[in-house]
């Protein structure tokens, strides 16, 4: 019953929210151009929303926080869960084209609460460029050049949106040797796929076992370009996380190594996994959906919005415990202590908001908010090298 009320609340909220109106964003460019631009977006989900014309960046490639939230809701997310990606990443003022100064602005929470009552209001004014999230988009000189030249402004801080660890499938640095990305897809995804005719008669699937094996392998062999990254072999000394988060203890840094990839991959899993036919809470993803996401940056064929909650994402992150993801249990155990709701308030009351608060509390307890170190534009001297 409680679940039903919650589902109805989610659906009602979805119906009230307007389609993203491009406020602060732009009109979608023609489809062929979108397909080309989407290759630049490392996150397959954002790439998919962009290709659908739902996420509409401005001429520089930027979206604002309200706009990001609306795009997530168009995919079926609850409002609090839709705020999440913005919360961590959409953090730069409109006039800061190169994303040199990160702001912690909480306007999105009040605007989300207002939205919950059906009144749309943008109380946050922060932006993120979704076209320059890759390592070679980094500004290499004061004149604004990037290692990989493009029509979009270079980014002083791509490490801010890179995860602690990631596959290399959508990393443009490997496109010269693997232009279709097929080799990287095969390397990373094929070993995780199994044939199970109970789940799908015609195509292979990724089950939770394959999913956790993929995450475990990423921690060891993945790319380590994020601000939360450890060095190879999980070394802390000289790592990005030590540099960007000097006030976090080593053990908490080892826990927070996981937060980004888990939130993103578990989000994808919860939004686009199919439930097992036996009615258990287990899910699986299909090979064709994974190919569309990772190779082509597209949402599943014939997709439609599906309710997608922070509650499910949180509990699946907790369920990653005990799956041999190196240092992963540090994070899942911490979340298991903070995430569940207290029993003092009935579960229907503001459930997703309460989960959001608890998730943030977990991040805070690990030291997430202690440091805010970003790179300014390279100084003029960099022009000389
Ligand atoms: C296929 O999936 C079902 C769950 O629907 C599971 O019970 C069964 O063990 C799986 N079969 C194989 C061969 O893994
Ligand atoms: C199973 O695979 C077929 C063929 O790719 C696809 O059309 C169908 O939607 C899949 N079913 C599920 C439940 O994933």
From TrEMBL:
Provide the alphabetized UniProt keywords: Signal
Using the record, list the residue span of the signal peptide; answer none if the entry has no such feature: 1-17
Q: Does the keyword Signal apply?
A: yes
Q: Which domain of life is it from?
A: Eukaryota
Which named protein is this?
Answer: FCPB protein
Please name the taxonomic classification of the source. Eukaryota, Sar, Alveolata, Dinophyceae, Suessiales
